[in-house]
Amino acid sequence: MSADDSFPMDQISSLFPQLENIQLVGAKGPQQIFTATLKSNFAPVMLRVVPTEEAGIFGWDPEFIVRSLTIVEQSHQGLLRVYEVGQAGPFTFIISEHSPYPRLADMNTLPQISPQAALNLVRNMAEGLLTLHRKNIFHGGITPKLICLREDGGDALLLPINIYPAQPPVDMGDFASPEWVTGAETTFTPGMDIYALGLALYILLTRKTPMEAGFAMPSSLIKCSDAVDSAVSRAINPDTRERYRDLGDFITDLDKAIANPAGRNAASIPPPPSSPAIPALNMQKGQSNIYYYLIPALIVGIVLTYTCILYKKDVVRMRNDYNEQVQKENNAKAEAARQANRDARRHAPATAQNAAAAIPSPVPATRPAQAPAVPKVSAEPGKVNWSLQPGVKVRQSSNRNMLGAYGPEKAVDGNTSSRISDVSISATGVVEGKTAWFGIDFGRETNRTIEKVVIYTPANLTLLGTMEKFKVILYGNDKNVLAEKTFSTTPSEKSTNVTSWKLDAPVKARALRVESANPSQPLALTEVEAYGPEDVEDTPAPAPAEK
């Protein structure tokens, strides 16, 4: 901003007599930002001013001001203090605490911190936000620039207000929750704050975003417990139904993870003495008996170790149950899709070629209930979606311990909803020196006739790695390429991009593969469909009649 566009410093000083050492440091649209010092307690502060006539356009409407005034009354060690909100002369202003510590956005300048320290930092901010959530005040704009971190690993501090409420969601980068990016939620919710804190925890633990880490669990990148994995993956789940709905529940799981941040290891059990010492029975008066305290400590250590073992077994059992449930749901959706395709073919109008020979199908007395997961947007009457048939195998390039919200089976469950809160996602990470890919194997003995392929990809999810350029390939049994085509997508305001490929001529394919055109670009799919006519078994020709 040029000096000509800035507000006169004499005017600012006269309007804010409670401040001294006022200096202009920057601007954001009509907002100008100053550093200053409170005369009352010499505390460093930030002064943000917006012309009142433009405050509503910028997002500082009356509702925002009322919410900000409520925040002024709150104070917590996890939140930067907001001292004053109001109007002065022609300006609307906010005076908040100014922290000299680095921001999370400058993570590369900070030393690596332990998992326990990262958990404590996020818990501290979550506890501060909980005091606001209890008053129905939700932040909705948490970004790395609003989180301060002490270099010595002390408390993290969060500015408890979205100071740029009118800025588009892209201004929040990866910290914008999927439902906010896509417009599925138009007002701030607790889940948006939980999502942002979960991302902050992931970055503090791994020093990477989930996309940079290939959506891997933290435990596959650093030494941490299953409790840490569970808290992180649930906090950043793109499905709001699976994410934490309350900060209190998130804090409870953070406490469990803090109690066991690194999992079961030797450090949790006191080391045995180098030489067995025999306690003296004739202790002198006043001499402390260390074994009086050591034996209970050993008992507690053994109990904690046994508890960790049981907990890990419970986690494995829960994961197995979840995978089994997903398989059952996929089978049910596949059967529903097959039934819908049969009904579509039964009611499809006969073509001129076979109109005379067409035999009308009996109309059932009652129409079967349509399953919610049946594809609607791209349904092809009279065609079969071979991706949903039994025996189909789904594979992907990175077989890592993926976050629970993503997985190869997600992209063939028939869900083509345009709402990110409903849609399922399959994502592949980036493997060094290899191209990310996602494949559907129809089977050697069940090659399918493919006439059309439809690919659904997330449009605005930068966290998941939106596919800007990718290739679709159809293979035969010997991995010979039957057909291929490269596609490019462009950013849009929709939550899902739909790419269709109608083949010039049908091919009988063994497998379908979606491949990234850039080795450093992961894939993020919401649905893959491969349509073609229902295969009819070959029947022998009737023998000629004897003369």
From TrEMBL:
Region annotation (Disordered) ranges: 329-369, 527-547
Pfam families per the UniProt record, alphabetical: F5_F8_type_C
Keywords: ATP-binding, Kinase, Membrane, Nucleotide-binding, Receptor, Serine/threonine-protein kinase, Transferase, Transmembrane, Transmembrane helix
Domain Protein kinase: 19-278
Spans traversing the lipid bilayer: 290-311
Claim: Transmembrane is one of the keywords in the record: yes
Biased composition (Basic and acidic residues): 329-343
Official protein name in the record: Serine/threonine protein kinase
Organism: Akkermansia muciniphila (strain ATCC BAA-835 / DSM 22959 / JCM 33894 / BCRC 81048 / CCUG 64013 / CIP 107961 / Muc)
